[in-house]
Amino acid sequence: MASSFLAVQFEFTHAIGPHAGRYIVAHPSSVDSTGAALRSDALTRRQQLSGQTMQKGTADVLAISVDVAPARIPKLRRKAKEAEVDSGPAEVPLLLATFIRGTRPLDRKVADAELLELSVDEDAQQAWVAEGLLVLNRAIRAYRAGSRDPYVREVAQRDSRTTRIGYGTTESLPNGKFTRAAVLPLPLGLKASREERLAPSETTANVLAGRASVLEGEDLLLRAYTDLDHGRTRAAALQVRAAVHLLELELRDLDGGNIGVDFDELANDTDRIVAAIAGGPLEHEQVVEVEAIVERIEHAIELWRFTPRLETS
Fold it and tell me: Domain of 202?
């Protein structure tokens, strides 16, 4: 009987970067002296001809697959073609990213028991989700670097239309198919106040109507959050330092400098943190300080954006 493997799967309705295929993921329990996944020389000729490079159970796997036929690719045309307005939008394929624990082959009975435990243990579910996203975002970041495409971005569980945990075989899982699986509930966030719920829509409406603008320094702050979420603390520190400098210039130009922020103090604080990155990634206390600086700046920007300013004649 074929072995079963536990896996977590994220379903997307948009491209995330890495092309469809099976990607070997090194596991700490089975790597060489350089930390790379082990390769096996004890493969049969049939295995070698089929493209297999490793024995089962020696590495984990990230499988990217498409669940339905891709939307048709339009023909190259010299002129625009009138749209068929009654035909509706083209079919959108579902992209499945499945992280498979290939280093733990299980028999069907054990896999059933573990899935039953997972279905009622929210902490274990989130541990699986966190590990799956860690591997998937590593792949996305590698693709971004290889393609030099800055618009390829990491994902979070909320970006996934559906998240599943289950088990299957080496034949089914790479194609996104489980033997049995449980669908995880959507992640719950903190209940936002009415003002917090309305702020994004209000900002969107005001920017499009020309009554407000988005500061370039705000983009730098958001990138810093992404870096912090993924453990890139040195990059985050540099982003925050650059944001402080740029926001000071932007707010001064927009006559919004009086927003209760001492930019000289912020510059000194961020300079000190940036100096510390020469010794390696930031310590926990320094990361907390960076996060606190970001929150201070965001609060100041909100005051600037939503506090009515008197018009002078």
Answer: 194-306
